[in-house]
Write a structure and sequence with these properties.
31% helix, Uridine Diphospho-n-acetylenolpyruvylglucosamine Reductase, domain 3, 18 strands, Uridine Diphospho-n-acetylenolpyruvylglucosamine Reductase, domain 1, globular, 307 residues, four-stranded mixed sheet, alpha+beta, Uridine Diphospho-n-acetylenolpyruvylglucosamine Reductase, domain 2, 3 domains
Length: 307
């Protein structure tokens, strides 16, 4: 990796002590892999996020927002970009109006939003309790589980656009598809600031019961350990995990990476795997499923950097 085009002097001047240099992405991703980036800036408030994005746009420096680091595979070669590590996580939960709602900043953990909602006797976000990742990542990728997803839960997303400033985007503008949005497909010059979710009043006990059921199901069916989450989107009418298992790949290893024997749509890092090991296993799974079933598995995770 070369970072010749990243003007470090200007970044030091712009961000001061908030700037970390030469950072390993393996420390910031749930798969515990990824090469180095020239710089990382920790974000704690929405004002931090807006100011950092505008500074980097003005400097013509490429950057990427990182939340919890799930659902991405960062190349061992790293990335020629600045990482904005988003931890702006405030929640405002309105239980009193006729149409209750939750306003969550984009660095908030989605599972926390679900649990805080349930504790206040609000229903509609229970499905999200076991989902790793932040609100920003979920809005970006249309995260989903247990028969629901962001498209069904979101009322409006607040977006900072490079040229058009801060805007409210309704569902229609986000153009959601299965595990995808226009933001993910077209890599628009925007930053997700916050989201408002629709919820309805219920009893705290009923909402919490649903959450416990979803979390128990996740523990029973999904493997522990460092992973990116689900690797592939489920093809229409089938499951990626079933297809990979039927192709005989459960437990297949390359280096310190393994297709999970518990759920074949997960690749586990046994401390020391490389991103390349994981990527090779993904290719093996895609090739085997295509050869055996004629089905092309589409990645649900996002590949970041060069492979």
């Amino acid at each position: 990796m070369t970072n010749m085009q990243i003007p470090m002097d200007k970044l030091r001047e712009a961000f001061g002590t908030k700037l970390q240099e030469n950072v390993s992405m393996a420390n910031y991703t749930t798969a515990r892999v990824g090469g180095r980036v020239p710089a990382l800036v920790s974000i704690h408030t929405l004002d931090d996020l807006i100011n950092a994005a505008q500074k980097l746009w003005n400097l013509s420096v490429p950057f990427r927002i990182l939340g919890s680091g799930s659902n991405i595979l960062v190349s061992d070669k790293g990335l020629d970009a600045v990482i904005l590590h988003n931890r702006a996580h405030n929640l405002k939960i309105d239980t009193k109006s006729e149409n209750p709602s939750i306003v969550a900043e984009s660095g908030a953990i989605l599972g926390t939003v679900a649990r805080q909602s349930a504790l206040r006797g609000l229903s509609g976000m229970e499905w999200a309790a076991p989902v790793p990742g932040t609100v920003g990542g979920a809005v970006y990728g249309n995260a989903g589980a247990h028969g629901s997803d962001i498209e069904q839960s979101l009322k409006v997303a607040k977006i900072l656009h490079k040229k058009e400033g801060i805007q409210d985007w309704l569902i229609e503008k986000l153009a959601y598809q299965y595990r995808s949005s226009v933001l993910k497909r077209e890599h628009l010059p925007v930053v997700i600031l916050s989201a408002i979710f629709n919820v309805v009043k219920t009893s705290r006990e009923e909402a919490w019961e649903k959450i416990q059921a979803f979390q128990s199901h996740r523990k029973e069916t999904q493997p522990p350990g460092a992973s990116m989450g689900s690797m592939f989107k489920n093809p229409t009418g089938d499951y990626a995990g079933r297809l990979i298992e039927a192709a005989g790949l459960k437990g297949r290893r390359i280096g310190r990476a393994m297709i999970s024997p518990i759920h074949a749509n997960f690749i586990i890092n046994f401390e020391g795997a490389s991103a390349q090991d994981i990527w090779k296993l993904m290719k093996i799974a895609q090739d085997a499923v295509k050869e055996k079933f004629g089905i092309i598995l589409e990645a649900e995770i996002e590949l970041v950097g060069k492979f």
